[in-house]
Amino acid sequence: MDTMTSDSLNLTVHHHGTPHTFNLSSDTTLQDLSSLLATSLHIPPENQKLLIAPKPGMQKAPFPATRLDNIIPLDSPKLKITLLGSPAKEINDLNTQLADTRRRNEARAAARASAASSPASRPSRRSGGIHTLSDSGDSYTFHRLLPLPYLPNPSRSHEFLARLRDDPGIRASMAKHRFSVPLLTEMNPAEHTTMDSRTLGLNRNKGQVIELRLRTDAYDGYRDYRTIRKTLCHELAHCVFSEHDRDFWNLTAQIEKEVDAADWKHGGRRVTEQDFYNPDDWEAEKDAEVIDERGWTGGEFVLGGPRQDAVGEERLRKDKDKGKQEE
């Protein structure tokens, strides 16, 4: 309980549910109390609001140099003083976080704008507007690798992207199908994860940009290489077919076989001795996660879900049954 004598005053101020009791002189003003709170609780006066009940109610900066015993009913049993305000450090931390988020978004936007404006990303007359066709054997590759610079350790992501680009199976299949992709980049898991699904890959504008989920959801590790490579085969097929029709699934299966065959001939290798997160295998993972829904132009979709595998398998089954009936 707050008490006052002729020479001193015991006053309790509540902040975030915690009481703070101060021994003050009897002639302390509201302005003096504000300065004391700034010193002891590190809350600047301009961030302070004092809710004094039952009266005089809410007090805000600048606080008057009026004695407390003239404006506060110190003898009231219902007296309660509540301080509303955040310490300067919390505010600075929040401002820093907001600035970091803004920088990350600007960096991402700049990277996309750079990829879109680069000569390699512009459709040529020969390609008919499709970014993945090229007449030069040296162009059957990913021309630029882009790890996300605002995520931890982007150098590891660059190594992973380089391993995919230089994978013998990927190189062989891209050369066979004359795929030339201006940009291969990593996907930010936080931007493509919902309670119902996790997108593993995106193909933007039929091969202008391919994004792959390299990292675990918590950014603390990397996914299984073979699983990511399987996703890349899927996204490469979208360079030709947008819909998940029979032609798409046939091309996906063909690319996967070409990649696996070339990998068998040359032998697998690790790009690094660092540990990666390894799901059980692709077959177990594909039913629980999302590859994508389709290649797309001029928009962004949450791609896939259980519907994708079900629809694809159902279409293949119907096509096979139709073929048997025709025979």
UniProtKB/TrEMBL annotation:
SUPFAM superfamilies: Ubiquitin-like (SSF54236). Residues 99-133, 302-327 are annotated as: Disordered. Residues 110-122 have a biased composition (Low complexity). Residues 100-109, 310-327 have a biased composition (Basic and acidic residues). GO terms for molecular function: proteasome binding. Residues 133-325 form the WLM domain. This is WLM domain-containing protein.
